[in-house]
Amino acid sequence: MKRIVILISGRGSNMARLLEASRQGELNDAAIVAVFSNRADAEGLRIAAQAGIPTGVVEHRAYSGREAFEQALASAIDAYAPDLVVLAGFMRILTEGFVRHYDGRLLNIHPSLLPVFPGLDTHRRALLEGVRLHGCTVHFVTPSLDHGPIIVQAAVPILDDDDEARLAARVLAEEHRIYPLAVRWFVEGRLTLVEGRVRVAGEQIEAALIAPALLREKP
Ligand code: GRF
User: Is 175 in the pocket of ligand 1 (CB under 6 A)?
Assistant: First the structure.
């Protein structure tokens, strides 16, 4: 049984989807053992508690600096002896020391087709740039922000009448598809890194290359 700890900062819809996937057996032999937030008011904490998952808050503002905060966070996480730590809308930049501590067992989801649009406001920036394809990425975390070996991406089209909210909703639906998929592959020990690229053992390439959802949106 692989043990998973999830870190959130807010709404927690990706976390909720992972909890549901776990309940439905989609994560194979894995258990979500704890959820931590750096904000006490994170909506996702309530959802996790209702699902009977142990939750905790490590408030970044309570610490003198990033490293002290991360030390406290890491000891809270490590008390659960996780095989995998999943960032799901966790809005703190992590130092190299923290990332190295979880080397190879720290995943993140980002709402763009990385390496384009790292950082914040990805949907607004995609609209401003006029790109036709946008999407989301699950990747292993490395010390550089929103950068690291890519496990799976899903692309969505940008439609003429899109605004930020419509686009964000279309991307979020894809996030909820690909995060459980990537976590399951990790749990099943199918991910390997070959020259900086992730290979998924026993999976057709199409599975990690999820194409535009346009057709599904048509009536
Ligand atoms: C998601 O768009 C995720 O990709 C990004 O932050 C957002 C978190 O949403 N890192 P939620 O808290 O999972 O609903």
Answer: yes
